[in-house]
Amino acid sequence: MIVTTNPATGDRLAAYDLHDDAYVEAALAAAANAQKIWRKRPVGERVHLLRNIAKALRAGKSRYAEMVTREMGKPIVEAEAEIEKCAYNCDFYAEHAADYLADEALVSNASQSAVVFDPLGVVLAIMPWNYPFWQFFRFAAPAFAAGNGAILKHANNVPECALAIEEIMREAGCPEGLFATLLIKPSKVAAIIADDRIAAVTLTGSTEVGAIVASQAGKALKKQVLELGGSDPFIVLADADLEEAATVAVKARYINVGQSCVNAKRFIVEESIADRFVELFCAKVAALKIGDPMARDTNIGPMARENLMTGLHAQVEKTVAAGARLMAGGKPLDRAGFYYAPTVLDHVRPDMAAFSEETFGPVAAIIRVKDAVEAVRLANQTEYGLGSAIWSRDIARARQLAREIDAGAVFINGMVASDPRYPFGGIKRSGYGRELGVYGIREFVNIKTVWIGPAVAAEPAKKISEKAGAQ
Predict the structure, then answer these.
(1) Are residues 100 and 244 in the same domain?
(2) Which of 148, 173, 206, 288 sits CB 3.0–4.6 Å from 143 for a disulfide?
(3) Per-residue pLDDT tens digits of the chain, which is 471 residues long
């Protein structure tokens, strides 16, 4: 049984029975059968499902947002934005999927040759609690458009959201069996990954869990996309617009109560402007309103679980004990629920926990550096490589520095965010593979070469390259 807790109060919310082995077997069989039919439908027909999902999400936005806030504590305004973003993602792929999946002609020694994009099959999606709807629909919209089916294993603290996704899919007219939510223990996942009816796996979650799933999927030789942890640097150079940089920095750190892999976490600031930046940053943090996540003026709600709060506090205590200066917060709040005060740590060094570990909560680490060279070096001094940001008025210089940062994305004078118009993913221990954009829809397809004879005389590689460039 799964028992959920309201993070804003600590009170029990609801209890859910787990699905038994017979239910899981029936879901796998139904998904495999439904996907064999779905894959044969033209893309233009598949995207009708995406448009219907978008309509269903918008129609139920208030109700679904309240589920998110109730189960994991996200402020209600942010939860509503999450639902709207899911709908936009579906609309985006409904418009662009046919182009992204169109055959691509090749120049070769064949009379004709092309690359075609065929669906892989049923994909197991293992998803986290921090964006209960977005994490799934970010993957699902392109996956369904590409002709795949999906099985969802969601985090066990958001079962109401997981079941609501199943409701949305039914309401949108999803073919019966093509999608299912499974309420199961984590110990059941390995057998599902190994099942022949599962073609691939996508996981968003911790680096530790990602390594386990990668090993299980790798043993079965199945494709994976892993979007894992992050310790994103936010570099502020001496010529930056400090007012704007501080405003965006606070949002980048404290949105979703700091519980996102792609939150800015390490604020690397040139020494010459560090005092002024810290002053601005702390003033804006002090203005954040902590309160009931259902209230529309709340900026900071509770953390999702008590153990996350206590783990974060341990990291803060270790960092302060090692010599960092506590500028704000630094402790759980004396109230019901799992609230942690928005925290600012200054003079953080690379040997401190707030630098070397991922801090998954409302804690900002400020690191002072002498110049841009040191800023980039420290930005890369992490096992993670998800997102990053550079703030500077010198765009040409910032673009050069961006090429030196080891990350899946670099945002210059902006806040890192996922968006269907461009790819999203990381390197190093932040995972591999990409979601969103054209690259995301092509992760769960068979990129197949079709060669049609008879062969023609081979051409020099230079001519082939020139022809391909002309196309």
Answers:
(1) no
(2) 148
(3) 999 999 999 999 999 999 999 999 999 999 999 999 999 999 999 999 999 999 999 999 999 999 999 999 999 999 999 999 999 999 999 999 999 999 999 999 999 999 999 999 999 999 999 999 999 999 999 999 999 999 999 999 999 999 999 999 999 999 999 999 999 999 999 999 999 999 999 999 999 999 999 999 999 999 999 999 999 999 999 999 999 999 999 999 999 999 999 999 999 999 999 999 999 999 999 999 999 999 999 999 999 999 999 999 999 999 999 999 999 999 999 999 999 999 999 999 999 999 999 999 999 999 999 999 999 999 999 999 999 999 999 999 999 999 999 999 999 999 999 999 999 999 999 999 999 999 999 999 999 999 999 999 655 545 544 555 544
Q: Is 365 helix (H, G, I), strand (E, B) or coil?
A: strand
Are 76 and 293 in contact by the 8 Å Cβ rule? The answer is: yes
* CATH number, position 365: 3.40.309.10
Query: Catalytic residue among 78, 160, 227, 357, which?
Result: 227
Closest CA to 136 of 35, 73, 204, 225: 204
Active site residue: 90, 161, 261, 282, which one?
261
Residue 388 sits in the same domain as residue 434? no
Which residues are CB-neighbours of 321 under 8 A, at least 6 positions away? Answer: none
* 61 occurs within a structural domain: yes
Residue 75 near residue 17 (C-beta atoms within 8 A) = no
What pTM does this model have? 0.95
